[in-house]
Write a structure and sequence with these properties.
Elements (H helix, E strand, L loop, with lengths): L1 E6 L4 H13 L3 E4 L10 H13 L5 E6 L3 H8 L6 E3 L3 H11 L3 E5 L5 H13 L6 H13 L20
Parallel strand pairs: 1-2, 1-3, 3-5, 4-5
Helix pairs in contact: 1-5, 2-3, 4-5
Length: 164
């Protein structure tokens, strides 16, 4: 799977750990930055990774900052992205099954590399259930598109299809 990873300085160490683990599992990883622990702003990196997913240049993304909140909020501003800041594997499983998330946010302040690995694994191996959840994901897309019932659903990221 082609996976984009991104972080700011406060998530750099965890991003590097996740990147190495994914590459070790045979995934193609695209690093959207940052490239050091030098202070920087997270929005540009999270947006780059999310846009890669929205544009079909990556199947999923993992974004990291100190809390995981800023990168997740930023990713969710990109049309077609559904991101969750998961603190354990169960949260990632439910977010994939019920919401079809395509971007995973992580908190370096709360998670070690060893803690993050099962969360990332759950994100990558859990399928979207569809069914009643399909309708709800379409409703999310409608809100994203203005809420008037005419919002197009991205052809690049079909909500009812697992993106792996």
């Amino acid at each position: 799977m082609r996976i984009a990873v991104a972080s700011d300085h406060a998530g750099f160490e965890l991003k590097e750990h996740v990147k190495d683990a994914l590459q070790g599992q045979g995934h193609e990883v695209v690093d959207a930055g940052t490239t050091s622990a030098e202070s920087t702003d997270y929005p540009q990196y999270a947006a780059t990774a999310a846009r890669m997913v929205a544009g079909g240049d990556a199947e999923r993304a993992v974004v990291v900052c100190g809390s995981g909140n800023g990168v997740t909020i930023t990713a969710n501003k990109i049309q077609g992205i559904r991101a969750v800041n998961a603190h354990d594997a169960d949260e990632a499983v439910m977010a994939r099954k019920h919401n079809g998330i395509n971007v995973l946010g992580l908190s370096q302040a709360r998670l070690s590399g060893a803690d993050a690995e099962p969360i990332v694994a759950a994100f990558l191996t859990t399928d979207f259930e569809g069914g009643r959840h399909e309708r709800r994901v379409l409703e999310i897309a409608d809100v994203e598109g203005g809420g008037d019932g005419t919002a197009p659903v991205s052809a690049d990221i079909p909500p009812g299809q697992p993106t792996h």
